[in-house]
Amino acid sequence: MPELPEVETIKKDLEKNVRGRQIIGVEFLWPGILQGTSIAAFEQTVVGKKITGVLRRAKNLSLELEGGNYLLFHMKMTGHLIFTDDSWQVDGTGKWEKHDGTESPLYDPLNQYIRAIFYLSGDKMLAFSDLRKFAYLKLLDGNSLKDTYSKYGPEPFSAEFTADYLFTIFQKKNLAIKKVIMDQSIIAGIGNIYADEILYATKIHPLTKANRLSRDEVTSFRKNTLDILKKAIDLRGTSTSDFRDTKGKKGEFGNILAVYRRTGLPCLKDGTKIERISVGGRGTHFCPKEQRIKE
DNA sequence: TGCAGTGTTGCTTC
DNA sequence: CGAAGCAACACTGC
Fold first, then answer.
1. Is pTM, for the whole model, over 0.85?
2. Which residues are within 8 A (CB) of A187 and not within 5 positions of it... i.e. 6 or more apart?
3. A35 touches strand C (CB under 7 A)
């Protein structure tokens, strides 16, 4: 489930490997992954174009094309972008053929759900894999991309992400803080894993109403958000469930998670058993001793 | 065996 | 209007 650090990891990979390459051809193994444009029109616009840039906004990833159009990818839960040589052919069912020689990440069962393939200059390819068919790809012009991106709240690593901003908006929300910080129109890029980790670091119970947070807690929340997201980006994301980078490699942040998916295990600070509850329908993990609900 | 859990977003309902 | 709930899908684990 790529959140901000995972999508940022993909972005860095693509900047290195894909930017500057020309799209030679496109193949859809499951056409439903393309939204809003017919395959014919898509091919017409995209094939032959050079990829001139890579952008991330919230959990969206986009490739800027020559001519001012953009390919917008959303991974949702199980989407993966895989960059490899185009000698790794597929058999028409979305599965990779066996290939002699070096070990390939494409043997990973998670990468057996290829929905679309971009053939790139230099005999490379970028494959879009997605088990659950929630992920999508859209072709947008500059204005549409801007509109799409404008729906999101501030990026944590932007100048707008201040304690003032957060405190003001939290004051208006008589809702569980966890729901508020996962609202993409309030903060861009935080999902279930990092929400739990950040609240733990800030010693805030996930059910605490956002408008009960003190100014100091909000300041601390902001700092922990930046620290945790930065650390997660440095470690190339969390692969507790299924995230893989564009080479099929796992991220390392999962090894240092404090609460997420640690139900029943001891809190790293005081040994209390981590508890799991449901908040807004999502699994939520916290230390009942360190994180108390504020009345 | 069957059904809850998984997690993101957007649509529907209240 | 804001918030809650659920559907979209496919697989895993109990």
1. yes
2. A153, A154, A156, A161, A166, A181, A225
3. no
